[in-house]
Amino acid sequence: MFVELGLAAGSVYLYNYLNSSEERKFKNNFNEVMLKTGIKNKDEETFKIYKIETKSYGYVCYLKNTKGLSVEHLESKINILECNLNSIVQIEKATFRNYIKMYVVNKDLDKFMFEPVKCKSHQLYFGKDYKGQSYTIDLNKHPMLLIAGATGYGKSMLLACILTNLVYNSPKDVELYLTQLIKGEISSFADCGPVKMVAYNPTELMIAINKVRMKMEERSNLFKAHGIRNIQQWNSHFPNRRMKRVILVCEEMSELMELPVWEQIWKVVKAGRSVGVHLIGALQRTTATNLDTDVKSQMTRITFHQNSIIDSQNVINSNNAMKLKRGECIVCGNDGEIKIKVPYIDDDFVLLNKYVPEIRIPTKKEKQEILNVKKINNKIYSIEQPQIIDVEENQIKPTGKKRVRKGVISLEDIEDVNREG
Asked: pTM for the complete prediction?
């Protein structure tokens, strides 16, 4: 027993010794970098680490406030710090405290599988930050999102992650309008309850945009009539008439910018925020033409790996997107740049189907498309794609008319009178 206790105590001592040794090495390295960057006051003093905590992702360091220096001095050299410490560095100034907190991430986050994270309807789940914490974006603060990046680095996976988590958590609180003019994975969500429409061509896209625009106008008029500023206030004052979040998702937005419908989409971007209408747009190649200052100022930018310095700078005004690996992205918003890792999702979406069975996955059985049809004058019409089908009269079963209250004339009755007259 004494031998076992001795071994246990020795193991703990060795673990603490190794940790403290690594911490001392890191502190010395940091102090050396600080001196060489020239961050110092008139008394040749600089920031020093007085406390360090070892975490699974790296370290949390506490720096003493130094007279004559501010947190801005430290932030101005963050690129040098990251390069010399071979880490991701985040600076946080604690309010009313005499220290600065610095997060140092020097270990890659392990690959993790997608699983739903509890969120409200105005929160979009992206994955995990490099401290291992779930990361969400609040649509109240970031109402319009632009997702950019080279092919094969995770744009579609992020969209799938966002949509699955929304459908899983808030099926009755969101409405989704999806557009896919070129080949993509977004049509896999077509059967999900919150999805009101999937547009596959410019004509269908115009219909979807008009529906969204009309909803915006209706809500705007209601807000004016009741003295309401935004959707949060409306839902707070009218809990029995709660409004859903409306999200328009556009794959390959650069294609849409060349179509007349872009003007209508841009109206959604500019006026949708207060009434709870949002846009998520994906963009592969970023240029000064399709990503001008107006677009960048109106939308929160998320980028995956970019192949060139120019593409990276076009999105986030820095070269950092070139360093990203597959499944990693940078969120560039009001809080600066935040690096996120997207959860792993298989190409066939089998994992997503486990949580949301309506998500389509590959099958050997051919899916029968259900047509919405209507009989007019003994001929059958398809409502989605109008076409006349010749059917023998004796094969057509009479359709029963809807019962109406006494004294109420239906629109169909009026049309019949006009035809007979």
From this structure: 0.75
**Do residues 196 and 323 both lie within one domain?**
yes
Rounded-to-integer distance, Cα 92 and Cα 53, Å:
15
Residue 156 labelled as part of a binding site? yes
User: How many C-alpha atoms does 236 have within 13 Å on its Cβ side?
Assistant: 6
Residue with tokens 């547009």, as numbered in its chain: 199
By the 8 A CB rule, do 175 and 166 touch?
Answer: no
Could you tell me where the DSSP H helices lie in 257-403?
262-271, 293-298, 309-316, 350-355
322-334: per-residue pLDDT in tens? Answer: 989 999 999 987 7
Tokens standing for residue 119: 């969120």
Averaged pLDDT of the chain: 83
Distance CA 56, CA 90 (A): 16
| Residue linked to tokens 């990693």 | 328
Ligand-binding annotation for 407, yes or no, is: no
Q: CATH number of the domain that 68 lies in?
A: 3.30.980.40
303 is in an annotated binding site: no
Angle, vertex CA 304, rays to CA 298 and CA 308, nearest 5? 95
Whether 318 has a pLDDT exceeding 90, the answer reads no
Answer yes or no: is 379 a known binding residue: no
Q: Is residue 152 marked as binding?
A: yes
Alpha-carbon span 402 to 155, nearest angstrom = 48
Question: Is 160 a known ligand-binding residue?
Answer: no
Q: Does residue 369 have a pLDDT over 70?
A: no
Q: According to the annotation, is 13 in a ligand binding site? A: no
Establish whether 227 is an annotated binding residue.
no
Q: Is residue 118 part of a domain?
A: no
